[in-house]
Design goal:
Length: 928
Amino acid sequence: MLDALKFFLFVILLLVTIMLNQHVTSKRSAELDLDLLWQIQDTKGVYVIPNQTLPSGVYTALEQSMIIGSLLEEYNDVNTSWVGQRDWIYRTNISCTANDYNHVLLTFHGLDTFASVYLGDRTLGTADNMFVRYRFDIKHQCDGKTHELRVQFRSPVAVASERARDRDPELPPVLPECPPDVYHGHCHVNLIRKMQASFGWDWGLAAPSMGIWKPVRLEYYSSALIRDVTVAISEADDDLWAVVVCVYLETGLASQRIEGTLTFKIIGVSLVNDNEQTLSVAETTDAQGEIWIEQRLTVRRDGVDRWWPNGYGRQALYSLYVRWADAAVNSVKLTNPDTYISEKVIRIGFRTVQLNQERATDGGLMFYFKVNDVPIFAKGSNWIPSSVLPERSYDANYVKFLLYAARDAHMNMLRVWGGGLYESDHFYRLADELGLLLWHDLMFACSMYPTNDDFLATVRTEVRQNVRRIQHHPSVAVWATNNENEVALRQNWYKTEANYSVYYEQYVELYVRTVLPEVEVADRWRTVLLSSPSNGDQSLKEDYIARNPQDPLYGDVHYYNYFLDGWNAAQYRGGRFVSEYGFQSLPAFTSWPEARSYGQKQLGELIQHRQHSPLGNEPILTMLRYNLPVPADPTADGYWPTLIYLSQLSQAMIVKTETEVYRAHRATFGTMGALYWQLNDVWIAPSWSSIEYGGTFKLLHVWLRAIFAPEHLVAFVNERRQLEVVAVRDTLAPNADELWDVEVRLHRYGSFRPVDRRRYAAVRVPPNAVALVDRWDVYGYLAQKGLRPADHLVLLVASRHEPAGGSPSPPPQPLAENFVLLDKLKHVRDASTASTLVAVSVVSAVCSERSNLTSVSLEVSVSAPALFVYLQLTPENSTLKQCQFSANGFLQFQPVRTVQLTCVDPGCRNKIQARDITVRTVNELLTR
């Protein structure tokens, strides 16, 4: 009763404080978020924005106050560039008392990026790295009076320019100095520790934001605070798991002697040795008030379930509880004993992950992950920040939507790309729950970097803090210290060749001598790669910079080729692990807010403005000209809706073809990973993404459910002009060979009925493996029959084998389906071109007011085979969000099929009717 009364009084006090525009602490609390009632203004006093909530950034605050329009609309990326070139101030008032605490710290978990922090008339310190946590001792100012807390930010654009100007002229420049002009970006981002993509990238706008992008907290305690807990879990012997737990304690900002007890519990799990539950500690923290303590716990193997990647088993997670209690708690009667106690709970998973690089029969090295001793074919994508504005990138609902979309597309791995952010705790928790393994770059990308003492010192802190925070998550599979910097240096991307030895020494100093040791000290559980792409162990043998970092016989590769026909499977050989590949497309016509008000020419100019690839739209157009009938006049009505549709179809075909070749090459070339570039976007613009900004699936993402399906029938025309058919099975259970029946149907484009069929009965498909079904000379067969390849395609279906005999049973359900084009679509002459080919009707529509999710069942009817049916909602349905079709861009060789449409519909206000669905097909273009 007394505790409840105290809590009630605390709530009343807090409410009164908010009304007085102040913040106070509670003696019963360990920390308090300072997230309310901030004021933001520029240093010139032109713009003053009151009553702001953290996390925050200046662009977000200006948008919400309607001082600027949305950064993501029209040309506002350029029109608002002045925001990132001004200095800004955040201020609020705080009041606290420190009578009952030995330590009171003001902790900023994320300041973006160059900031000076003041409390009252005292300067607390400065910040210069957005990835670093900063702590300031304010105990002596916790006097019960109100003090102004002020954070003054300097423009990162200005600071980066100053650093370039002040750099030692004896040293070569840090390259590249500026992004390509087409980025509309800013220079010298590699001289500062800020999200590298925030100064502009080929897929994103420049938005050099400033602000308090993570929580600010008052932390108060009297003994020690548990900051982080890391684990290293291994199989001790046949019956046991060994869990080595490292507890990172803090005692303010100064060295202090601590004596007390650490208690360890894995909730719901018994430890083998009860003595492991407690550990007596008598130690002295270092000069920064930090120390780490290690304890080994032992768990019986049969007492826990294993954690598995998506598609291989359950994601079993367990709560590890750690408690610090100072010896004073038991020896002296204290007024507030809880201030001498600190607790932390993390979730852990029992699994092993090994990156295998044994010698291969072709003389190279293999490169694949084994999880719980099972080789895993890594299927997935590359993750960029969910927003270009850091504070928005932590939007829990949107991050959840994107990660669920990856899980539902049968992905089991995402690569956290090195030009973005160390993600939120929420991101890693979801990855654990969904079974998404993470290939995690450190935040260095596509640049050379300085190696002066100050830069290396802040990098050490950055790596140490972030690896410790993230380390315990079972989803993290491997670290890589950078993205593409090894290959950039070796292949002279940035004209570094003239000073190669200097840049090489800087590379080794930064990654080998600085980043690598910090990761290895904080995480003894995982492999650390020096770069991606790299030759893995072979790069180490070649003094860290391989002669060919893109050698397909080693490590991982990034493969892009924009002017060979990407629809042609014969061009893809792959490597051991393809960690980047892909192709651009345009967001849906209805996704552009400007599509309603702009004419064709205006929209084309905006698309060109947002096309940041130095190659422009030419790769997209080239690929379309190779394969499809393309509209010729950019000013004609309907040009952009048609081109957008075709670009998405082409992207889906390219990534489908390439991915399926890589899956089939598991057996022949040892390919064990396919991570396409990229999952998500930060604005509506031409890019490589499969999910548009806001959540609309491109055709590619709809297709990925089949492309990455754990049981799949891969088919493509190989380099010998044979139709290669491969059964792919990633599943483990049942742990025995399965028998599949495979049917290959040869169709004319204009007929529902096949011209011919080939049947393969009882194809043996082992678990977690691929099996060749056939290599068929389909072109030779067509020639014998006097048939034209351009008038035909192949449809394939696999089902589980049903033994002959016994009672009659219904036809088996398809296990997998696929198709193969035998010539370019632009050569097709036998397909129906009627404008009334497709009709869509609404069968049922249900909306849940509880979930705000509307589900519509659509019936799609065709009078003749329809090629790549593309369904879209009309622009009038713009209030509906994250609308997805269960199938889209499909070949319809049956008269009727059902498609489900789901949308987020707040308040269930919309009633979708058939007229709200637009339809496009390739058939319509064949007459042009």
